[in-house]
Amino acid sequence: MSRRPVNPSRRIGDGGSIPFVASIQSKSQNSPLLSIGLVILGAILLIGYCYSSSGGASSDIKDVNKLEGGASCTLEVLQALPILKKAYGDSLHKVLHVGPDSCSVVYSLLQEEDTEAWGIEPYELEDVSAKCKSLIRKGIVRVADVKFPLPYRAKSFSLVIVSDALDYLSPRYLNKTLPELVRVSADGAVIFAGYPGQQRARGGEVAKFGRPAKLRSSSWWIRFFVQTGLEENETAGKKFEQASAKRAYKPACQVFHLKSYP
Fold this sequence. Notes:
By secondary structure, this protein is an alpha/beta fold. It has ten helices and six strands, in the order ααααβαβαββαβαααβ. It has a six-stranded mixed beta sheet. Helix 4 runs parallel beside helix 5 (102-110) and helix 4 packs across helix 10 (234-246).
């Protein structure tokens, strides 16, 4: 579509002329570099957007699955890592994470100096990233049903962190799974569980997790720990609370600290 030439003598209304229109248009017609610059700028912005959406370092936390819009305790683990470092110190040098989106937690832990990390994804994986596929291919993250014994020797890991995995298990399986998670830890286990009343996955959750989430109260969990012979780690719990207070951090999930077996 051709553009009509602007008449410099053309007026608006009864008076005010537009004195610089002609000179501006002339410059734009004679300056193809301006158009080229805009094209290059647009390309740079497009490349930056694609990178941040498909694998940039800053997308690791954003990519965590929020369980179809519900609260995610795995996301909470990522946010709590600095607090856990203060509470557990050297115990974070060899960590096993169990829960959905384990790749995100393991990848973040591996960025820490002198830290080894492994993960168990208890549910079927869908649309995993290239980094997650790499961790699975290397055997660092594996898909395994936590309702059955874990393929690790006792005290294989210094610390076991669990999120969004136990809320979907019935007490029948919890009686087997939770002691098994404590068995493979040398310095204890940290459990991130949802609060009663929190939003959880709706559509398709039964197909993926086997049953709807059962969000229990802290008193229910404490009774369960006692009944199964598990002991809370009060020392680690106090250190976690102190570090949380200093950073003004308030967990969106319940956090329980358990001792490992003697």
